[in-house]
Amino acid sequence: MSSSLILRAEAIDKSYPGVHALDHVDFDLYEGEVHALLGENGAGKSTFMKILSGSLPKDSGRIFLRGQEVDIVGPYHARELGIGMVYQELSVIPGLSVAENIFLGRLPKRKPLGTVDWSEAMSQAKRILDDLGVDVDPRERVGNLSMGEQQLTEIAKALSMKAQILLLDEPSSALSDEERERLFSIMRGLQERGVAIIYVSHRLVEVPQIGQRVTVLRDGAKVGTLPVDQADEATLIRMMVGRELREKFPKDEIQRGKEILRIQGLTVRGVLNNLNLNLYEGEILGIFGVLGAGRTDFARALFGVDPIDSGEVFLNGRKINISCPSDAIELGLGYLTEDRKDGLILRLTIPANITLASLKRISRLGFLNQGEERATAEKYVKELDIHTPKLDQKVEFLSGGNQQKVALAKWLCSRAKVLIFDEPTRGIDVGAKIEVFRLMNDLAKQGVGIIMLSSELPEVLAMADRILVMAGGSFTAEYARGQASQEDLMRDAVVK
Amino acid sequence: MAKNPSEPRVSALGRVGAWVATPQLRVRLGIRAVLVFAVLLFIYYVSTAPRFFSVTNATNLGARTAPDIILAVGQTMVIIQAGIDLSVGAVLAFSGSLASVAYCYWGLPVWPAMLLGLAAGALLGFINGLIITKGRIPDFIATLGMMVTARGVALILTGGLPVPSHLTAITLKAYLPQEIIWLGSGDILGFPTGALIALLIVAAGWVILMHTGFGRALFAVGGNREAARVSGINVDRTKIMTYTLMGLLAALAGLVLVGRMNSANALMGDGTELQSIAAVVIGGTNLFGGEGGVIGSLLGALIMGILRNVLNLHNMQDFAQRVVMGLLIIGVVLFDQLRRRYGA
Predict the structure, then answer these.
(1) Which domains are present in chain B?
(2) In this predicted structure, what is the pLDDT of residue A189?
């Protein structure tokens, strides 16, 4: 590469409790280069970007900017160093104008009173937007813009701070094809001016269109860096998912029983399209999909959290009507939410959380039977091996794995016969993962039907008796156990 | 990628921790010192207040704080489920006035009149709950509207005059009955009735919060509304029930207050909504919901009541008392914040 090295990261390391998020990752970036960064969910892409943009401190490793070592202490510092970040979730303020968003906190002032110099702000914003080739009125409220235009406003904001390095975290995920094309042409324009871009994406097809080189992360470690002409889709998928299954998946063979749940034509307009599935007693049905595929939307619709537009649900052959979660619970459904914090009351104790979905059963005339509550909780703490110094511990002080077990105990306590697990192992360590899988086995043996929604390929492949692949709110493929490879699932999960 | 073994691996957090350790300790000690000073000051003023430890004063104190305590119990429940009720003072005035008007002017017998007042309070609370849940209007706004409205209705009802009064066009049928006066000014074996009712309400509140499914639902809704819903709790029904109960308690406080003053009027209880919130917050209930209890609120109401009483005994004028009460609210909560932040 003829241009000069602008950024070099050496052995960047970062750990969270129980997770080695980045394992001595090396990375380099040249002036005027678009360097794509790929990896599965949880591979460490976002952590790496956050370290470069100063919003997370690294544990160890060194960062060099133009050959000089820097210690990025915070987002402001990163901006001063010329590193601009555009987050996956937009951070624009919808009620303010484009110009105000671009110059947020730095609006040009007019002397002597320090009032805002609006005409200067507008003309400066106009210049930046023109430079980008964006046709947006700086006076327009950002809330009135399309997602793509909002994204461009963010990029304009980063550039207005004289960013020489631009970090784009999945900028295309919310864009239409047309908007994506425009983003790419703008990125090319920036490249010509020497701006270097790190581009995180889930869309493999984009990589050769826009990038020069691509780096793949897996489980926090760098797998390799390739020039794009060597990085065809198959190679990239292999690099992303090609791990050995080091983690244990204790899957037992269980004879499935009769059909317990049937869903016909479940539709939520614009979110879920005509979903059909059936589930049998003792079966673990895996539903695989990447971020935004609609997994959680499906779970919420089925459980009555969000209203559905059409569709029928049958339980044990009988048509049922679920209009709110308490209906679902009454009928014997349980739902472990993707984020544990959405399913637990952190400030309440372990027993209170475990019995939360069974309050009616442990009450007599409205009064809680606290002896029974404690006994029940004690039983589950023992059965699920929940580690806690005392039974009355508030759940917020438990580790992630133990919180997950409390959440699971809640549905065991409610005697759920159909359990929806949304990302059951998200954010818990390997040991706790294996325990959660064991519990899934045990439940299946007792005849519980399990729907396991996951974006983790290995766990879906290893734990599910049957796999449905979800993309863009539809089921795109179905495989029996052992029939699909990781590559198959990834292919079906990528939006065409 | 060789690690350098000589380099100690101190996390950034660890370094930050080491850096603030000493000042943090200092703040912690400071907090305790000020707290001890405040308690000593309080004790000094209480012990030097003329006639504080007299039976008359104790009875007076109990009777005066009773309505505040009753309101604080309801407000605790409302705040635990992450709401707030600004209308309690107005509901108190409306219900108290309604019961009095019904007895003195309309000629209703005493028990139906009192029941009418209580039912009216519960109804207004129910309407609050309905507007908040079905109308999806923030608790603050809905109850602010109710506060103004209920006060207005009370003024219309009483014509802006005290009840009973000879100045109205309607002929006065009776003065306030002994039963209502007994609630606010009577006693049972020497204990002021109002205070006993208040303690009974505190006990009931404690049982509801700690020993019923409804109480558990309040904590769940206030702690994490979404999680409560996903766990099958009917959030709307829980909220409506809470506000209804609050309305009922406001009406009860209204009757006790009317009994103590031997008269009702549409402007009584002005400012008690904020006092009840202050008592709850001083008592340690989290203003954002999910944590707290009625015992703390009882103490909060008592601290405010005792302070007001002591300042009265010291002959401090009302205007200055307001300043002290205001500073008390800020001070207590500020201490609590500092204590949580620095773990003192």
Answers:
(1) 49-313 (1.10.3470)
(2) 87
